[in-house]
């Protein structure tokens, strides 16, 4: 990459989407753990 190349910064919408997907993944992982605990109790 040359020093004269433009900054390779993703647009704001893409960054927002990545943050939303990350949060959705965390919520999904927590839901899976909770489902395993509940199914293990029964």
UniProtKB/TrEMBL annotation:
The chain crosses the membrane at residues 20-41. It comes from the Bacteria. The keyword Transmembrane helix applies. Keywords: Membrane, Transmembrane, Transmembrane helix. Pfam families: MmpB (PF26627). This is Uncharacterized protein.
